[in-house]
Amino acid sequence: MNAPQQPLILGSSSPFRKQLLKNLNLQFTTCSPDIDETPLDNETPKDLVLRLAVEKAKAVAVQNPDALIISSDQVSVLDGNINGKPGNRKNAIKQLTQSSGKVVTFFTSLCLYDARNQDYQLDLVPFEVHFRSLDSQKIERYVDFEQPFNCAGSFKSEGMGICLFEKLAGDDPNSLIGLPLIRLVSFLEQKGIQIP
């Protein structure tokens, strides 16, 4: 495994982000940041995810002042409105019904925060999901099969969710799952961590 010169922490409780980061063969631990994720008045979806990524990293840094912290946030936007995680079957069906035949944009932020000097790299990676026209039976079969209740947009693109789409468009498919690895590799290299 590639061991960075300072502790590397993933500031997230997401099992999806943890699995993605494992793909880079790095030694890291996880820490769940406890912050208020309520949008500010008139805050755009892009501004929200950028702010939250930095706030998550800073929250983790309080207990880990020597660490290099990776944090991220994501929103799903349909018709200008933020879609949260559905939480249950009824909401997942509603979200997918609203997405049918439309384009949903995911904004995924990435922050690499150096707690030693409070310096950070920050970026936003958009990704578009073009949905097929979906009938209610297909939506219900999908939701019952994959139960994507903890997923923004109510689907798992790395799983059976792929059957819901006409096409995917963006720079990094990992950003759709929650962690833009292509951008992260560049951020880590700027900190002297070479992958592979």
Low-confidence stretches are: none
Radius of gyration: 17 Å
Shape: elongated
Query: DSSP strand (E) fraction?
Result: 25-35%
Proper CATH architecture: Alpha-Beta Complex
Number of helices: 6
**Named CATH topology:** Maf protein
Structural class: alpha/beta
* DSSP, total strands: 7
Helix content: 25-40%
Largest sheet: 7 strands, mixed
What is the N-to-C succession of helices and strands?
EHEHEEHEEHEHH
Please give the domain count.
1
Distance between the termini: 9 Å
At the first level of CATH, the class is Alpha Beta
Question: Please, what is the average pLDDT?
Answer: 95
Provide a concise account of the structure shown.
This protein is of the alpha/beta class and 196 residues long. 33% of the residues lie in helices and 26% in strands.
Task: Outline the fold blueprint.
Elements: E1 8-10, H1 15-22, E2 29-30, H2 45-63, E3 68-78, E4 81-83, H3 89-99, E5 103-114, E6 119-131, H4 136-146, E7 165-170, H5 173-177, H6 181-190
Parallel strand pairs: 1-2, 1-3
Antiparallel strand pairs: 3-4, 3-5, 5-6, 6-7
List the defining traits of the structure above.
alpha/beta; 196 residues; 26% strand; Maf protein; 7 strands; 7-stranded mixed sheet
Task: Please describe what this structure looks like.
- With 196 residues, the chain is α/β, with parallel strands linked by helices.
- It has one domain (8-190): Maf protein.
- The chain has helices at residues 15-22, 45-63, 89-99, 136-146, 173-177, 181-190; strands spanning 8-10, 29-30, 68-78, 81-83, 103-114, 119-131, 165-170.
- Strands 1, 2, 3, 4, 5, 6 and 7 form a seven-stranded mixed sheet that branches.
- The longest helix is centred in the first third of the chain and has 19 residues, at 45-63.
- It starts with 7 loop residues before the first strand and ends in a 6-residue tail after the last helix.
